[in-house]
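MODEL INPUT / OUTPUT PAIR
PAIR INDEX: 1
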Amino acid sequence: MKKRALRAFVCLAICFTLAGPAYATESGVTVTVNGTAIETGFASQVLNNQTYVSYLPIVSALYPDATAVWANNQAEVTAPGLKLCIKPEAKYIVANGRYLYVPDGVKVDGAHILVPVRTLCQALGATVTWDDATSTITIAAGSGPSASGDSFYNSTDLYWLSRIIYAESGNQSLEGKIAVGNVVLNRVASSLFPNSVYDVIFQRNQFTPASSGSINREPSEDAVIAAKLCLDGANTADNALYFVNPKVSPNSWASRNCTYVATIGAHAFFA
Protein backbone atom coordinates (compact mmCIF):
# COMPACT_ATOMS: atom_id res chain seq x y z
CA MET A 1 0.00 0.00 0.00
CA LYS A 2 2.82 2.40 0.89
CA LYS A 3 4.58 1.79 -2.43
CA ARG A 4 1.37 2.27 -4.42
CA ALA A 5 0.72 5.53 -2.61
CA LEU A 6 4.26 6.69 -3.31
CA ARG A 7 3.97 5.92 -7.00
CA ALA A 8 0.67 7.74 -7.16
CA PHE A 9 2.26 10.72 -5.47
CA VAL A 10 5.16 10.74 -7.94
CA CYS A 11 2.84 10.60 -10.93
CA LEU A 12 0.62 13.29 -9.46
CA ALA A 13 3.60 15.55 -8.80
CA ILE A 14 4.86 15.06 -12.34
CA CYS A 15 1.42 15.72 -13.77
CA PHE A 16 1.06 19.03 -11.96
CA THR A 17 4.67 20.12 -12.39
CA LEU A 18 5.22 19.38 -16.06
CA ALA A 19 3.48 20.16 -19.27
CA GLY A 20 4.44 18.78 -22.65
CA PRO A 21 3.07 17.92 -26.06
CA ALA A 22 1.43 14.60 -26.74
CA TYR A 23 3.52 12.13 -28.70
CA ALA A 24 2.45 9.54 -31.22
CA THR A 25 2.53 6.07 -29.69
CA GLU A 26 3.09 2.56 -30.91
CA SER A 27 0.03 0.40 -30.24
CA GLY A 28 0.12 -3.34 -29.73
CA VAL A 29 3.62 -3.42 -28.23
CA THR A 30 4.16 -5.92 -25.41
CA VAL A 31 6.83 -5.44 -22.75
CA THR A 32 8.03 -8.48 -20.80
CA VAL A 33 10.40 -8.41 -17.84
CA ASN A 34 11.97 -11.70 -16.79
CA GLY A 35 9.37 -13.56 -18.83
CA THR A 36 6.31 -11.78 -17.46
CA ALA A 37 4.30 -9.27 -19.44
CA ILE A 38 3.92 -5.98 -17.59
CA GLU A 39 1.52 -3.08 -17.83
CA THR A 40 3.71 -0.11 -18.68
CA GLY A 41 0.87 2.36 -18.30
CA PHE A 42 1.86 3.93 -21.58
CA ALA A 43 2.21 2.64 -25.12
CA SER A 44 5.77 2.89 -26.39
CA GLN A 45 6.79 5.55 -28.87
CA VAL A 46 9.60 5.52 -31.42
CA LEU A 47 11.68 8.61 -32.04
CA ASN A 48 14.67 8.51 -34.38
CA ASN A 49 14.86 4.72 -34.12
CA GLN A 50 14.78 4.79 -30.33
CA THR A 51 11.90 3.15 -28.47
CA TYR A 52 10.78 5.23 -25.50
CA VAL A 53 8.96 3.65 -22.57
CA SER A 54 7.61 4.78 -19.22
CA TYR A 55 10.47 4.11 -16.82
CA LEU A 56 8.66 3.35 -13.55
CA PRO A 57 6.90 0.04 -14.40
CA ILE A 58 10.15 -1.42 -15.72
CA VAL A 59 12.17 -0.25 -12.73
CA SER A 60 9.53 -1.69 -10.39
CA ALA A 61 9.53 -5.04 -12.20
CA LEU A 62 13.32 -5.36 -12.04
CA TYR A 63 13.69 -3.86 -8.56
CA PRO A 64 10.58 -4.63 -6.48
CA ASP A 65 12.02 -2.78 -3.49
CA ALA A 66 12.66 0.42 -5.44
CA THR A 67 11.22 3.68 -4.19
CA ALA A 68 10.69 6.79 -6.28
CA VAL A 69 10.30 10.42 -5.27
CA TRP A 70 9.94 13.68 -7.15
CA ALA A 71 12.72 16.01 -5.96
CA ASN A 72 15.01 18.63 -7.47
CA ASN A 73 12.75 18.77 -10.55
CA GLN A 74 13.47 15.14 -11.40
CA ALA A 75 12.44 11.60 -10.61
CA GLU A 76 14.83 10.01 -8.12
CA VAL A 77 14.76 6.24 -7.76
CA THR A 78 16.60 4.28 -5.10
CA ALA A 79 17.00 0.53 -4.68
CA PRO A 80 19.73 -1.70 -3.30
CA GLY A 81 22.81 -0.77 -5.32
CA LEU A 82 20.95 1.77 -7.45
CA LYS A 83 20.46 5.54 -7.50
CA LEU A 84 18.75 6.65 -10.70
CA CYS A 85 17.93 10.26 -11.60
CA ILE A 86 15.74 11.11 -14.59
CA LYS A 87 15.08 14.76 -15.38
CA PRO A 88 12.48 15.66 -18.00
CA GLU A 89 13.96 17.23 -21.14
CA ALA A 90 17.53 16.45 -20.03
CA LYS A 91 19.75 14.80 -22.63
CA TYR A 92 21.03 12.20 -20.21
CA ILE A 93 20.01 10.10 -17.27
CA VAL A 94 22.25 9.47 -14.28
CA ALA A 95 22.69 5.99 -12.83
CA ASN A 96 25.00 5.61 -9.84
CA GLY A 97 26.90 8.69 -10.99
CA ARG A 98 27.19 7.41 -14.58
CA TYR A 99 25.95 9.81 -17.28
CA LEU A 100 24.13 8.01 -20.09
CA TYR A 101 23.32 10.00 -23.22
CA VAL A 102 19.77 10.52 -24.46
CA PRO A 103 20.25 12.39 -27.76
CA ASP A 104 16.61 13.40 -28.17
CA GLY A 105 16.08 14.09 -24.50
CA VAL A 106 13.90 12.61 -21.77
CA LYS A 107 10.23 12.97 -22.77
CA VAL A 108 7.07 13.67 -20.80
CA ASP A 109 3.51 12.77 -21.71
CA GLY A 110 0.99 13.67 -19.05
CA ALA A 111 2.09 11.92 -15.87
CA HIS A 112 4.60 9.67 -17.63
CA ILE A 113 8.34 10.18 -17.93
CA LEU A 114 9.66 8.38 -21.01
CA VAL A 115 13.21 7.27 -21.71
CA PRO A 116 14.81 5.11 -24.41
CA VAL A 117 14.41 1.51 -23.31
CA ARG A 118 17.99 0.54 -24.16
CA THR A 119 19.43 3.42 -22.15
CA LEU A 120 17.16 2.57 -19.23
CA CYS A 121 18.22 -1.07 -19.33
CA GLN A 122 21.87 -0.08 -19.45
CA ALA A 123 21.34 1.92 -16.28
CA LEU A 124 19.54 -0.98 -14.63
CA GLY A 125 22.04 -3.62 -15.72
CA ALA A 126 19.41 -5.44 -17.79
CA THR A 127 19.40 -6.82 -21.33
CA VAL A 128 16.81 -5.86 -23.93
CA THR A 129 15.78 -7.40 -27.24
CA TRP A 130 13.10 -6.61 -29.80
CA ASP A 131 11.00 -9.23 -31.58
CA ASP A 132 9.59 -7.63 -34.70
CA ALA A 133 7.30 -10.57 -35.46
CA THR A 134 5.44 -10.26 -32.15
CA SER A 135 6.12 -6.57 -31.42
CA THR A 136 7.60 -7.55 -28.09
CA ILE A 137 10.26 -5.82 -26.03
CA THR A 138 11.94 -8.48 -23.89
CA ILE A 139 13.88 -7.32 -20.84
CA ALA A 140 15.89 -9.62 -18.59
CA ALA A 141 17.68 -8.83 -15.35
CA GLY A 142 21.45 -8.89 -15.51
CA SER A 143 24.14 -8.94 -12.87
CA GLY A 144 22.98 -5.68 -11.30
CA PRO A 145 22.88 -1.93 -11.95
CA SER A 146 25.68 -0.08 -13.68
CA ALA A 147 28.98 0.43 -11.91
CA SER A 148 29.41 3.67 -10.01
CA GLY A 149 30.81 6.68 -11.78
CA ASP A 150 33.64 6.86 -9.25
CA SER A 151 34.84 3.40 -10.28
CA PHE A 152 34.02 3.71 -13.99
CA TYR A 153 35.58 7.07 -14.91
CA ASN A 154 39.34 7.33 -14.96
CA SER A 155 39.97 10.36 -12.76
CA THR A 156 42.96 11.60 -14.79
CA ASP A 157 41.11 11.30 -18.09
CA LEU A 158 38.06 13.05 -16.63
CA TYR A 159 40.18 15.84 -15.18
CA TRP A 160 41.89 16.74 -18.46
CA LEU A 161 39.00 15.96 -20.80
CA SER A 162 36.63 18.23 -18.89
CA ARG A 163 39.19 21.02 -18.95
CA ILE A 164 39.89 20.89 -22.68
CA ILE A 165 36.14 20.74 -23.35
CA TYR A 166 35.62 23.84 -21.22
CA ALA A 167 38.58 25.71 -22.70
CA GLU A 168 37.64 24.94 -26.31
CA SER A 169 33.83 24.94 -26.14
CA GLY A 170 32.70 26.38 -22.84
CA ASN A 171 30.11 28.56 -24.58
CA GLN A 172 28.81 25.83 -26.88
CA SER A 173 25.79 23.52 -26.54
CA LEU A 174 26.05 20.15 -24.85
CA GLU A 175 26.29 18.54 -28.31
CA GLY A 176 29.16 20.89 -29.18
CA LYS A 177 30.97 20.11 -25.94
CA ILE A 178 30.58 16.36 -26.51
CA ALA A 179 31.92 16.75 -30.05
CA VAL A 180 35.13 18.38 -28.79
CA GLY A 181 35.55 15.53 -26.32
CA ASN A 182 34.93 13.05 -29.14
CA VAL A 183 37.84 14.52 -31.10
CA VAL A 184 40.17 13.93 -28.16
CA LEU A 185 38.99 10.35 -27.59
CA ASN A 186 39.04 9.59 -31.33
CA ARG A 187 42.67 10.67 -31.37
CA VAL A 188 43.45 8.44 -28.40
CA ALA A 189 42.03 5.52 -30.38
CA SER A 190 43.90 6.48 -33.58
CA SER A 191 47.39 5.25 -34.44
CA LEU A 192 48.13 8.74 -35.77
CA PHE A 193 48.13 10.31 -32.31
CA PRO A 194 49.32 9.59 -28.75
CA ASN A 195 47.38 6.94 -26.84
CA SER A 196 46.28 8.82 -23.73
CA VAL A 197 43.98 11.75 -23.10
CA TYR A 198 46.74 13.77 -21.46
CA ASP A 199 49.27 13.15 -24.23
CA VAL A 200 46.74 13.95 -26.97
CA ILE A 201 45.82 17.26 -25.34
CA PHE A 202 49.43 18.29 -24.72
CA GLN A 203 50.80 17.13 -28.06
CA ARG A 204 52.78 20.04 -29.47
CA ASN A 205 50.90 22.59 -31.60
CA GLN A 206 47.54 20.82 -31.35
CA PHE A 207 45.32 22.49 -28.74
CA THR A 208 45.90 26.19 -28.07
CA PRO A 209 44.58 26.07 -24.46
CA ALA A 210 47.27 23.53 -23.60
CA SER A 211 50.04 25.96 -24.57
CA SER A 212 48.32 29.15 -23.40
CA GLY A 213 47.49 27.79 -19.97
CA SER A 214 43.75 28.37 -20.24
CA ILE A 215 43.25 24.62 -19.92
CA ASN A 216 43.98 25.00 -16.22
CA ARG A 217 40.78 26.94 -15.58
CA GLU A 218 38.20 25.16 -13.44
CA PRO A 219 35.65 23.60 -15.83
CA SER A 220 31.95 24.31 -15.63
CA GLU A 221 29.51 21.65 -14.44
CA ASP A 222 28.27 21.25 -18.03
CA ALA A 223 31.82 20.60 -19.25
CA VAL A 224 32.34 17.91 -16.61
CA ILE A 225 29.02 16.31 -17.57
CA ALA A 226 30.00 16.42 -21.26
CA ALA A 227 33.29 14.71 -20.43
CA LYS A 228 31.49 11.97 -18.50
CA LEU A 229 29.04 11.49 -21.37
CA CYS A 230 31.97 11.14 -23.80
CA LEU A 231 33.70 8.61 -21.56
CA ASP A 232 30.41 6.69 -21.42
CA GLY A 233 30.18 6.52 -25.21
CA ALA A 234 28.19 9.61 -26.25
CA ASN A 235 29.19 10.72 -29.73
CA THR A 236 28.03 13.72 -31.75
CA ALA A 237 31.07 14.06 -34.04
CA ASP A 238 31.34 10.55 -35.47
CA ASN A 239 35.00 9.81 -36.33
CA ALA A 240 36.24 13.42 -36.37
CA LEU A 241 39.88 14.02 -35.51
CA TYR A 242 39.96 17.79 -35.98
CA PHE A 243 37.78 20.80 -35.36
CA VAL A 244 38.12 24.46 -36.27
CA ASN A 245 36.14 27.66 -35.96
CA PRO A 246 35.56 28.60 -39.63
CA LYS A 247 35.12 32.26 -38.76
CA VAL A 248 38.52 32.34 -37.08
CA SER A 249 40.28 29.96 -39.51
CA PRO A 250 38.35 30.00 -42.81
CA ASN A 251 41.18 28.32 -44.74
CA SER A 252 42.41 25.85 -42.15
CA TRP A 253 44.60 22.84 -42.88
CA ALA A 254 41.79 20.51 -41.75
CA SER A 255 39.22 22.10 -44.07
CA ARG A 256 41.60 21.73 -47.03
CA ASN A 257 42.93 18.25 -46.35
CA CYS A 258 40.34 16.30 -44.36
CA THR A 259 36.82 14.97 -44.81
CA TYR A 260 34.06 17.20 -43.51
CA VAL A 261 31.94 15.54 -40.82
CA ALA A 262 29.60 18.13 -39.32
CA THR A 263 29.17 21.66 -38.05
CA ILE A 264 27.99 21.94 -34.46
CA GLY A 265 27.64 25.44 -33.12
CA ALA A 266 30.78 27.47 -33.81
CA HIS A 267 32.93 24.50 -34.81
CA ALA A 268 33.33 22.49 -37.99
CA PHE A 269 34.55 18.92 -37.54
CA PHE A 270 36.75 16.90 -39.91
CA ALA A 271 38.10 13.36 -40.11
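PAIR INDEX: 2
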Amino acid sequence: MHAACTIFNQSSYLASRYEIRYAEEESSLIDSWNLNKIIVNTDLAEGTLDPVEGGKAAYVHPKPELFMSDRVYYIALKAYDERNAQSPLSNIAHFGKFMKPGQVTDLQFISQSPSNLTLNFTAPGEDGVFGKGKIMLTGEWQFSNDVLLLILVSRFELRYSNDSAVLVNNWSDAEMIDNTHLVAGTLEPVDPGDGMQVQLNETLFKEEIMYYFSIKAYDEAGQFGDLSNNATLYIEIEDTGLSGGAVAGIVIGSMFGGFVLVLGGYFLWKKM
Protein backbone atom coordinates (compact mmCIF):
# COMPACT_ATOMS: atom_id res chain seq x y z
CA MET A 1 0.00 0.00 0.00
CA HIS A 2 1.54 3.27 -1.09
CA ALA A 3 -0.73 5.74 0.70
CA ALA A 4 -4.13 5.73 2.35
CA CYS A 5 -5.75 9.11 1.93
CA THR A 6 -9.05 10.03 3.53
CA ILE A 7 -10.95 12.80 1.77
CA PHE A 8 -14.13 14.37 3.11
CA ASN A 9 -16.10 17.58 2.76
CA GLN A 10 -16.40 19.94 5.68
CA SER A 11 -19.85 20.92 6.89
CA SER A 12 -21.30 24.23 5.80
CA TYR A 13 -21.24 24.92 9.54
CA LEU A 14 -17.78 25.01 11.11
CA ALA A 15 -17.46 22.05 13.47
CA SER A 16 -15.13 22.30 16.44
CA ARG A 17 -13.42 18.98 15.68
CA TYR A 18 -13.50 15.86 13.53
CA GLU A 19 -13.05 12.34 14.77
CA ILE A 20 -11.90 9.52 12.47
CA ARG A 21 -11.97 5.97 13.81
CA TYR A 22 -11.26 2.61 12.23
CA ALA A 23 -11.91 -1.06 12.99
CA GLU A 24 -11.63 -4.51 11.48
CA GLU A 25 -15.39 -5.02 11.82
CA GLU A 26 -17.80 -2.64 10.13
CA SER A 27 -20.43 -3.27 12.80
CA SER A 28 -18.03 -2.10 15.50
CA LEU A 29 -18.02 1.43 14.06
CA ILE A 30 -21.82 1.42 14.06
CA ASP A 31 -22.44 -0.12 17.47
CA SER A 32 -19.37 0.83 19.54
CA TRP A 33 -17.93 4.03 18.08
CA ASN A 34 -15.90 5.13 21.12
CA LEU A 35 -14.26 1.72 21.57
CA ASN A 36 -12.53 1.81 18.18
CA LYS A 37 -9.08 3.12 17.38
CA ILE A 38 -8.96 6.85 16.71
CA ILE A 39 -6.76 8.71 14.23
CA VAL A 40 -5.37 12.01 15.52
CA ASN A 41 -3.08 14.58 13.94
CA THR A 42 0.07 12.82 15.16
CA ASP A 43 -1.04 9.74 13.21
CA LEU A 44 -1.03 11.66 9.93
CA ALA A 45 1.75 11.73 7.35
CA GLU A 46 -0.02 14.63 5.62
CA GLY A 47 -2.95 16.94 6.28
CA THR A 48 -4.71 17.93 9.48
CA LEU A 49 -7.98 17.16 11.25
CA ASP A 50 -8.28 20.75 12.45
CA PRO A 51 -11.57 22.22 11.13
CA VAL A 52 -11.34 24.77 8.35
CA GLU A 53 -13.87 26.85 6.47
CA GLY A 54 -17.14 25.00 5.94
CA GLY A 55 -17.91 23.47 2.54
CA LYS A 56 -14.30 22.78 1.61
CA ALA A 57 -12.79 19.35 1.09
CA ALA A 58 -10.29 18.11 3.66
CA TYR A 59 -7.43 15.73 2.88
CA VAL A 60 -5.54 13.61 5.38
CA HIS A 61 -2.99 10.83 4.88
CA PRO A 62 -2.80 8.39 7.81
CA LYS A 63 0.59 6.79 8.31
CA PRO A 64 0.70 3.33 6.66
CA GLU A 65 2.32 1.78 9.74
CA LEU A 66 -0.97 2.18 11.61
CA PHE A 67 -2.37 -0.74 9.65
CA MET A 68 -1.32 -4.37 9.45
CA SER A 69 -1.03 -6.36 6.23
CA ASP A 70 -3.60 -8.93 5.16
CA ARG A 71 -6.40 -7.18 7.02
CA VAL A 72 -9.49 -5.32 5.90
CA TYR A 73 -10.12 -2.07 7.74
CA TYR A 74 -13.27 0.03 7.95
CA ILE A 75 -13.02 3.75 8.55
CA ALA A 76 -15.58 6.48 9.26
CA LEU A 77 -15.91 9.99 10.60
CA LYS A 78 -18.03 12.05 12.98
CA ALA A 79 -18.13 15.83 13.52
CA TYR A 80 -18.53 17.50 16.91
CA ASP A 81 -19.59 21.00 17.90
CA GLU A 82 -18.43 23.11 20.85
CA ARG A 83 -21.04 21.47 23.10
CA ASN A 84 -19.63 18.08 22.11
CA ALA A 85 -22.82 17.21 20.26
CA GLN A 86 -21.95 14.71 17.56
CA SER A 87 -23.18 14.13 14.06
CA PRO A 88 -24.52 10.79 12.84
CA LEU A 89 -21.90 8.38 11.56
CA SER A 90 -20.57 9.08 8.09
CA ASN A 91 -20.54 6.52 5.33
CA ILE A 92 -18.03 3.73 6.02
CA ALA A 93 -15.10 3.32 3.63
CA HIS A 94 -12.90 0.22 3.61
CA PHE A 95 -9.46 -0.81 2.44
CA GLY A 96 -6.82 -3.49 2.94
CA LYS A 97 -3.08 -3.67 2.44
CA PHE A 98 -3.44 -6.89 0.51
CA MET A 99 -5.82 -5.40 -2.04
CA LYS A 100 -4.25 -5.44 -5.46
CA PRO A 101 -3.97 -2.34 -7.65
CA GLY A 102 -6.72 -1.55 -10.11
CA GLN A 103 -6.64 -2.25 -13.83
CA VAL A 104 -5.84 0.22 -16.61
CA THR A 105 -8.67 -0.09 -19.13
CA ASP A 106 -8.04 2.77 -21.56
CA LEU A 107 -4.45 2.35 -22.78
CA GLN A 108 -4.26 3.82 -26.29
CA PHE A 109 -2.01 5.56 -28.78
CA ILE A 110 -3.22 9.08 -29.44
CA SER A 111 -0.46 9.58 -32.01
CA GLN A 112 1.38 7.03 -34.18
CA SER A 113 3.43 9.45 -36.22
CA PRO A 114 7.02 8.11 -36.45
CA SER A 115 8.21 11.29 -34.79
CA ASN A 116 5.47 11.31 -32.12
CA LEU A 117 4.53 7.92 -30.62
CA THR A 118 2.31 8.97 -27.72
CA LEU A 119 0.51 6.62 -25.31
CA ASN A 120 -2.29 7.75 -23.03
CA PHE A 121 -4.04 6.07 -20.07
CA THR A 122 -5.83 6.80 -16.79
CA ALA A 123 -4.05 5.93 -13.54
CA PRO A 124 -5.95 3.42 -11.38
CA GLY A 125 -6.00 3.19 -7.60
CA GLU A 126 -6.37 -0.04 -5.65
CA ASP A 127 -9.54 -2.13 -5.76
CA GLY A 128 -12.29 -1.57 -3.25
CA VAL A 129 -11.05 1.63 -1.67
CA PHE A 130 -13.71 4.14 -2.60
CA GLY A 131 -16.40 4.69 0.04
CA LYS A 132 -19.90 5.58 -1.09
CA GLY A 133 -22.77 7.50 0.49
CA LYS A 134 -23.40 10.89 2.01
CA ILE A 135 -22.53 12.21 5.44
CA MET A 136 -25.56 13.77 7.13
CA LEU A 137 -25.07 15.91 10.22
CA THR A 138 -27.63 16.87 12.87
CA GLY A 139 -29.70 19.99 12.81
CA GLU A 140 -28.72 22.54 10.19
CA TRP A 141 -25.43 20.80 9.42
CA GLN A 142 -25.04 18.80 6.26
CA PHE A 143 -22.13 17.16 4.54
CA SER A 144 -22.57 17.07 0.79
CA ASN A 145 -19.93 14.53 -0.26
CA ASP A 146 -18.41 11.16 0.54
CA VAL A 147 -15.60 10.03 2.72
CA LEU A 148 -13.18 8.47 0.25
CA LEU A 149 -10.14 6.33 0.73
CA LEU A 150 -7.51 6.52 -2.01
CA ILE A 151 -4.59 4.12 -2.21
CA LEU A 152 -1.94 4.96 -4.78
CA VAL A 153 0.04 2.40 -6.73
CA SER A 154 3.82 2.49 -6.32
CA ARG A 155 4.81 1.93 -9.96
CA PHE A 156 3.63 1.12 -13.47
CA GLU A 157 5.17 -1.51 -15.71
CA LEU A 158 4.71 -0.94 -19.45
CA ARG A 159 5.72 -3.77 -21.80
CA TYR A 160 5.38 -4.60 -25.49
CA SER A 161 5.82 -7.47 -27.93
CA ASN A 162 5.11 -8.29 -31.56
CA ASP A 163 3.11 -11.27 -30.24
CA SER A 164 0.07 -10.37 -28.13
CA ALA A 165 0.10 -13.83 -26.51
CA VAL A 166 3.45 -13.04 -24.85
CA LEU A 167 1.86 -10.22 -22.89
CA VAL A 168 -0.83 -12.55 -21.59
CA ASN A 169 1.17 -15.72 -20.98
CA ASN A 170 4.79 -14.60 -20.47
CA TRP A 171 4.63 -11.05 -19.18
CA SER A 172 8.25 -10.90 -18.02
CA ASP A 173 9.48 -12.01 -21.47
CA ALA A 174 8.00 -8.95 -23.16
CA GLU A 175 10.18 -5.87 -23.68
CA MET A 176 9.83 -3.33 -20.87
CA ILE A 177 9.69 0.43 -21.30
CA ASP A 178 10.92 2.64 -18.47
CA ASN A 179 11.50 6.37 -18.17
CA THR A 180 14.82 6.13 -20.04
CA HIS A 181 12.90 5.06 -23.15
CA LEU A 182 10.65 8.11 -23.10
CA VAL A 183 11.04 11.31 -25.08
CA ALA A 184 8.44 13.05 -22.93
CA GLY A 185 6.30 12.26 -19.89
CA THR A 186 6.93 9.88 -17.01
CA LEU A 187 5.68 6.54 -15.68
CA GLU A 188 5.85 7.78 -12.09
CA PRO A 189 2.46 7.20 -10.37
CA VAL A 190 -0.08 10.00 -10.06
CA ASP A 191 -3.38 10.24 -8.19
CA PRO A 192 -6.03 7.67 -9.17
CA GLY A 193 -8.23 8.98 -11.96
CA ASP A 194 -5.59 11.35 -13.33
CA GLY A 195 -4.57 11.01 -16.96
CA MET A 196 -1.03 9.95 -17.90
CA GLN A 197 0.69 10.52 -21.22
CA VAL A 198 4.10 9.33 -22.40
CA GLN A 199 5.94 9.75 -25.70
CA LEU A 200 8.05 6.75 -26.72
CA ASN A 201 11.44 6.87 -28.41
CA GLU A 202 10.72 5.88 -32.02
CA THR A 203 14.15 4.24 -32.45
CA LEU A 204 12.90 1.29 -30.36
CA PHE A 205 10.58 0.12 -33.13
CA LYS A 206 10.90 -1.11 -36.70
CA GLU A 207 8.67 -0.22 -39.62
CA GLU A 208 5.91 -2.52 -40.86
CA ILE A 209 5.75 -4.62 -37.66
CA MET A 210 2.68 -4.78 -35.44
CA TYR A 211 3.53 -4.17 -31.77
CA TYR A 212 1.21 -4.83 -28.83
CA PHE A 213 1.43 -2.84 -25.58
CA SER A 214 -0.03 -3.48 -22.12
CA ILE A 215 0.54 -2.08 -18.65
CA LYS A 216 0.24 -3.31 -15.06
CA ALA A 217 0.10 -1.36 -11.81
CA TYR A 218 2.11 -2.56 -8.81
CA ASP A 219 1.92 -1.67 -5.12
CA GLU A 220 4.71 -1.56 -2.54
CA ALA A 221 4.03 -5.17 -1.53
CA GLY A 222 4.76 -6.32 -5.10
CA GLN A 223 1.13 -7.13 -5.84
CA PHE A 224 0.02 -6.23 -9.34
CA GLY A 225 -3.27 -5.42 -10.96
CA ASP A 226 -4.88 -7.18 -13.88
CA LEU A 227 -3.34 -6.79 -17.32
CA SER A 228 -4.63 -3.74 -19.16
CA ASN A 229 -6.24 -3.70 -22.54
CA ASN A 230 -3.87 -3.91 -25.53
CA ALA A 231 -2.79 -0.86 -27.48
CA THR A 232 -1.35 -1.52 -30.94
CA LEU A 233 1.38 0.26 -32.88
CA TYR A 234 2.18 -0.13 -36.58
CA ILE A 235 4.65 2.22 -38.25
CA GLU A 236 4.27 2.38 -42.00
CA ILE A 237 7.19 3.07 -44.33
CA GLU A 238 7.14 6.71 -45.28
CA ASP A 239 5.60 7.17 -48.74
CA THR A 240 8.05 8.81 -51.16
CA GLY A 241 5.46 9.00 -53.94
CA LEU A 242 7.50 6.60 -56.13
CA SER A 243 6.65 3.04 -57.00
CA GLY A 244 9.06 0.19 -56.37
CA GLY A 245 9.87 0.05 -60.07
CA ALA A 246 10.58 3.76 -60.18
CA VAL A 247 12.89 3.52 -57.18
CA ALA A 248 14.71 0.57 -58.78
CA GLY A 249 15.01 2.54 -62.04
CA ILE A 250 16.55 5.47 -60.21
CA VAL A 251 19.08 3.22 -58.52
CA ILE A 252 20.02 1.40 -61.74
CA GLY A 253 20.15 4.67 -63.68
CA SER A 254 22.42 6.21 -61.09
CA MET A 255 24.74 3.22 -61.24
CA PHE A 256 24.83 3.30 -65.07
CA GLY A 257 25.43 7.05 -65.10
CA GLY A 258 28.36 6.62 -62.75
CA PHE A 259 29.80 3.88 -64.98
CA VAL A 260 29.56 6.13 -68.07
CA LEU A 261 31.35 8.95 -66.28
CA VAL A 262 34.17 6.64 -65.19
CA LEU A 263 34.51 5.18 -68.69
CA GLY A 264 34.54 8.64 -70.33
CA GLY A 265 37.22 9.80 -67.92
CA TYR A 266 39.35 6.77 -68.78
CA PHE A 267 39.27 7.44 -72.58
CA LEU A 268 40.00 11.13 -72.02
CA TRP A 269 43.06 10.20 -69.99
CA LYS A 270 44.27 7.81 -72.74
CA LYS A 271 44.09 10.58 -75.36
CA MET A 272 46.23 12.79 -73.21
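PAIR 2 NOTE: The helical segments are 26-31, 164-169, 244-271.
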